[in-house]
Design a protein that fits this description.
The complex is a heterodimer of chains A (330) and B (316). In chain A, 49% of the residues lie in helices and 14% in strands. The two termini of chain A are 19 Å apart. Chain A is globular and about 65 Å long. Chain A has twelve helices and eleven strands. Chain B has 316 residues and is an alpha/beta fold. In chain B, 43% of the residues lie in helices and 15% in strands. Chain B contains eleven helices and twelve strands. In chain B, β2, α6 and β3 form a beta-alpha-beta unit. The two termini of chain B are 39 Å apart. The chains are: A alpha/beta (330), B alpha/beta (316). Chains A and B meet through α7, β3, α8, α9 and α10 of A and α6, β3, α7, α8 and β9 of B.
Chain lengths: 330, 316
């Protein structure tokens, strides 16, 4: 039951970041599972096939343990094994179809999100966005093409200035956009009608984990009674959080903020660089997903709809890690 | 020490609000022996302040004071007046710092932003009294004066954490008190501070962390008593990056860079002045106490300048 080279190559490409971005990683993983199923040449009993698929799934998940889109794609495809009964060729067919469905849906997700999101933008709106998110840019561009956007404020997003990418992409689409420093969001909020942001991960209670600064923007918006929309594909919802697992916040290298010499010259100063923060659901008006606009508190609906089977498995796995091979054997 | 890489981020070595004002008085002090040159410099400095930093109430009040003195006494005793003014400002800042330092207790964790002379003095007092404390400093874009303050704290030997402006809400949970300096104080208790002050205050309020603003009364905007709005200067992309970085961005890229913002009184727990610590909303009461009448009789700077021009004429 050797895992095909082609599959191992995809796993490697994800691991060494030759494949990057939540969406691309997820689709590559689905593709790898599809290839693995198609190339299966082991014994033609159902248990052997399931065990083999579990092994492939584990290899893929272990490549990038923190990105939620990856296990979600794998779980989505593996769900098909659970749903289907029959012989090996029927199971193979189910995996291939689920993988193809995942890829197709994830590609269509952005389009649907932009459509649903753009409908929520008011006429003549001044929109504020933070960091760079493909989903929120697509919402804003779509709304602009519908003639709804007057102006966009894009935050610089220290330390890495992803806001400059957002600004560039909006300018390329003709959207009038002004960059502001992150510190100016409360001052600018007076002029803003709606906030549109993306998400890295969405927890089961509707809390949004996104680029550092998001939560204080949402707070400033809340104070000014400005609505906050989070545009995110359903594969960004984290099934692990249903069982209490915390989303760990990565602290990145301090040299992203100040040069190494500055750090060396200041022994009493510690430069702290958390990459994400958590925005509580009460500051978010709606999550815009490809299956529709939902209140953040209903995030669990998305998880049950899209990953019901996975929830059971993760619960059995006692949270340590998702180990599909063992679970399937039980 | 200069860090070349920081230029890419628009870092500028700047003057704090009080330093800016003291710089203005010192320019005038150098001219007191030449009446004509003094008047000429006075006009130049007034223009400079109103153009560059109209929100710097310390400078406006200093120029108002010197102008009024000139109109009343001419050049008689002007040097002593100006020397006294500098002394008064320094003492007020010092006294404010001492009073504020009494609100800080052993093992407090503070958060602040930008760089303020009076806040620095407060830290110095705490260190001199051997109070152990820790500080979170926001880098404070644009300008990144937070780096200057972190540098000062490092040299004082204070445990300091430098974080980006966006991380204020993330770290405020670890903090006991927020302390900020101000550029101007309005009569209703609103403060004009480095941009981000209002966001930091909001974040602190949400986390039930107290906010103290250090505002010696030479920063009071008397104009706000009569409904005048404070003017807040804004910059462009050059406050955020150097030309090299600008070249990598699209030609039609544009940025709006507010330098100051207004924090409403309800987000501030205490205004610390040289007269004591009180609620922001109590400022009119304090003014009545100090000046004996309310509103205090204060002439506008524009009016004073025009009277000086009547008396001494335009000097170029």
């Amino acid at each position: 039951m050797k895992v095909p080279d082609e599959v191992l190559k995809i796993a490697d490409d994800i691991k060494y970041m030759r494949i990057r971005g939540a969406g691309k990683i997820a689709r590559a993983a689905a593709q790898a599972l599809k290839i693995a199923a198609e190339k299966y040449s082991g014994p033609s009993d159902v248990e052997s096939f399931k065990k083999y698929m579990g092994k492939v799934a584990d290899i893929l998940i272990s490549t990038r343990p923190t990105a939620v889109s990856l296990p979600n794609a794998v779980l989505y495809v593996m769900f098909s094994l659970e749903k289907t009964s029959g012989n090996v060729s029927e199971l193979k067919k189910a995996v291939v179809e689920a993988a193809e469905e995942f890829i197709r849906e994830s590609l269509m997700a952005l389009e649907k999100i932009s459509e649903y999101g753009a409908r929520r933008i008011k006429d003549d709106a001044v929109v504020l966005t933070h960091c760079h998110s493909t989903a929120s840019v697509s919402v804003i561009v779509k709304a602009y093409k519908m003639g709804k956007i007057k102006r966009v404020y894009s935050t610089e997003t220290r330390p890495f200035y992803q806001g400059r990418i957002t600004t560039r992409q909006l300018l390329e689409n003709g959207v009038p956009v002004i960059q502001i420093p992150d510190s100016a969001v409360r001052l600018i909020m007076h002029e803003v009608d709606q906030v549109v942001i993306g998400a890295d991960t969405i927890a089961s209670n509707g809390a949004v984990i996104n680029k550092i600064g998001t939560s204080q923007i949402a707070l400033a918006a809340h104070e000014a009674r400005v609505r906050v929309f989070v545009a995110a594909e359903t594969y960004k919802f984290s099934p692990m959080t249903v069982f209490g697992e915390l989303v760990s916040i990565e602290f990145r290298d301090p040299t992203e903020i100040v040069p190494r010499e500055w750090i060396n010259d200041h022994p009493n100063v510690e430069v702290l660089n958390p990459a994400f923060d958590v925005t509580p659901p009460e500051y978010i008006d709606a999550l815009i997903t490809e299956i529709g606009v939902i209140p953040p508190q209903a995030a669990i609906l998305v998880l049950m709809e899209r990953m019901g089977w996975a929830l059971e498995k993760i619960k059995l796995g006692r949270l340590d890690k998702i180990k599909l091979e063992d679970l399937i054997e039980e | 020490m200069e860090y070349v890489e920081l230029r890419r981020h628009g870092y500028r070595k700047g003057l704090t609000s009080t330093e800016y004002a003291l710089n203005i008085v010192n320019i005038l002090l150098k001219m007191v022996n030449d009446e004509k040159e003094f008047i000429r410099t006075y006009y130049v400095v007034v223009d400079k302040v109103l153009r560059e930093r109209p929100s710097n109430m310390a400078s406006v009040n200093i120029l108002r004071g010197i102008g009024s003195y000139l109109l009343e006494n001419g050049f008689n005793g002007i040097r002593d007046y100006i020397v006294g003014l500098i002394d008064k400002i320094e003492k007020a800042c010092e006294e404010t710092a001492i009073i504020a330092s009494h609100r800080i207790v052993e093992k407090d964790v503070l958060m602040t932003l930008s760089d303020s002379l009076c806040v620095r003095k407060m830290f110095k007092h705490l260190v001199d009294r051997d109070v152990e404390f820790e500080v979170y400093v926001l880098e404070s874009r644009p300008g990144m004066e937070g780096l200057d303050l972190a540098d000062y704290l490092d040299k004082l030997g204070v445990k300091t954490n430098l974080v980006i402006d966006s991380a204020a809400r993330f770290f405020v949970k670890n903090v006991k008190k927020v302390v900020v300096g101000v550029e101007a104080l309005a009569v209703n208790g609103a403060v004009v501070g480095k941009v981000g002050t209002s966001l930091l205050s909001l974040v602190a309020n949400e986390a039930r962390v107290r906010v103290f603003a250090l505002a010696p009364l030479y920063k009071l905007s008397f104009e706000t008593i009569h409904g005048e709005l404070l003017e807040l200067p804004e910059g462009d992309w050059s406050y955020l990056m150097d030309e090299e970085v600008r070249k990598t961005l699209p030609q039609n890229y544009s940025a709006r860079v507010p330098v100051f913002d207004v924090t409403p009184p309800h987000l501030i727990d205490g205004i610390v002045t040289e007269y004591g610590l009180f609620a922001p909303q109590a400022i009119p009461v304090v003014l009545k106490q100090i000046y004996g009448v309310y509103p205090p009789k204060v002439e506008s700077l524009e009016h004073i300048v025009s009277q000086i021009k009547e008396k001494w004429g335009e000097i170029r």
